[in-house]
Amino acid sequence: MAGAPPPAPQGSAAHPGSGAPRLRALRRRPRQPSWQYGRPHPDLCSPRSYYRGAAFHVLSPAAVLSAGASGLPRAFRCTWSTHVRHRCLRVGAPSLQTRLRRGTWHRPAPALGRPVLPPPPAAELRGQDFARPPHSWNVHRPRDPRSQHGFPGGRAGPPLPSPEPAGLPGHRPRRANAFLEELRPGSLERECREERCSLEEAREIFRDARRAEQFWLSYTDGDQCASNPCRNGGSCEDQLQSYICFCPDSFQGRNCETNKKDLLVCVNENGGCEQYCSDRAEGGRSCRCHEGYTLQDDGVSCAPTVEYPCGKIPVLEKRNGSNAQGRIVGGRVCPKGECPWQAILMVDGVLLCGGTLLNAAWVVSAAHCFETRKNWRNLTVVLGEHDLREQEGEEQVRRVARVFIPDKFVPGKTNHDIALLQLNRPVTFTDHVVPLCLPEKSFSERTLASVRFSTVSGWGQLLHRGATAVQLMAIDVPRVMTQDCQEQSRQWEGLPAVTENMFCAGYLDGSKDACQGDSGGPHATKFQGTWYLTGIVSWGEGCAAEGHFGVYTRVSRYIEWLHRLMNTNTTLRGLLRAPLP
């Protein structure tokens, strides 16, 4: 009808039941009651408008005004915020800041009349894969309370909004979904950072197998070098559940934590010295060489100064410059010239014991070899021997001028089982006659004792109560801890005790051992290319008896005694007892 006012739109003053349009109209007015501008008003909340845990139930101010302020309880306080959002609290409830700190407050509704879904707990978000479709997220949706209680005016509220990926914290939308994505060049950011890539995709990106493998280790296993474990300037390389540190020249260790200068002490790998090492009082160490060697400019190496230095095997040195790796061991023949310090003691042409050449005039053997021998005129020592059946032209035969044994040696016992023989005239060093080095005591006990395997040689019996060997034999035997040897010997009654002047070597299975006729022979240990005398074949239970080790005289206990006797001039002959220091 002409001139009639148009019908009032929904949300106007004529329709107080609506929410948002009425609010926009109120905000455009210059003057409004104080409750519309953010100040608290005690009559603008209903019992359903405070936070109930699952969602906010917010009523518009227009709906509240239509219901009448007198009907609202005073137990609720409401604040009308400037961005048109309702927050209602009980009187005496914690402040907003306190609830934020406790994690009990959630964001208000994005619009009037719409409930707000609280974000899922952090424990649920932590394991979520945001690349999955939204319907698979682990978000607990509460039922819409408006469908049960209804909104003012009898109308149901708008439907619950579906959660969007952008609303979740820290989420970035997937962007590798462009047109013809497979035709675009590989990108590490697009293929493996924004999405989950495979090893083949990583290889296409890097186009280098090594770089791709390194990336894949850190991509799937985590970067083990992220914490920078390498110290003192070392560089880290990531490995599968591990890492490798490449250290500067002056550092070493798993994490480059050790300064090599701090390791230059004799107890640590002999201080890096080739032969003898001495610790300095002011710190550090100094290297020395055995007689017949000289220290090189590097301060650690030793070079021979004579044609036939002790502890070297000339036939191997001249053959191909090799070392004892060419030796035939394990109970087989020691090739001619490869045991040049081996001596054989004979009485009237019969094998008595073995021995070791220490220098041109002295041979060391076992004391028990001379328990019953009184006629020294028929005792001879042969050097350079290999095959007892024939004369090979390398043999040197000498008479014995005198024999020294410790004054504490008791015949029939095994302690102090060592003897020193002086030849009537010196031997001549050749490729087949070379002395074995007698080491310093500290070097023998600290360094040589830690060497696992040593070599024992002789012409002893091949089997228990069997025939003796006609060719020189050699075996490699492992050194055994003295405590283990003592415990093993206690299990057998009637065996001599293993003292501090002895050590054990061999195998419990009885596969390799010294035997009758090998007594007095050398137990030689190699260190840095030079061989040293560490033991003398002494005694054992049978020959390679199962469950028994071979027992050897510990030469390091008698080094001072040996040097004193070799430097003594005497005219006495025969068997002599020399006091121990």
Automatic annotation (TrEMBL):
One of its GO terms (molecular function) is serine-type endopeptidase activity. GO terms for biological process: blood coagulation; proteolysis. It comes from Mustela putorius furo (European domestic ferret). It catalyses: Selective cleavage of Arg-|-Ile bond in factor X to form factor Xa. Transmembrane segments: none annotated. Residues 175-221 form the Gla domain. It comes from the Eukaryota. Keywords: Blood coagulation, Calcium, Cleavage on pair of basic residues, Disulfide bond, EGF-like domain, Gamma-carboxyglutamic acid, Glycoprotein, Hemostasis, Hydrolase, Protease, Repeat, Secreted, Serine protease, Signal, Zymogen. Residues 1-22, 102-173 are annotated as: Disordered. It is found in: Secreted. This is Coagulation factor VII. GO terms for cellular component: extracellular space.
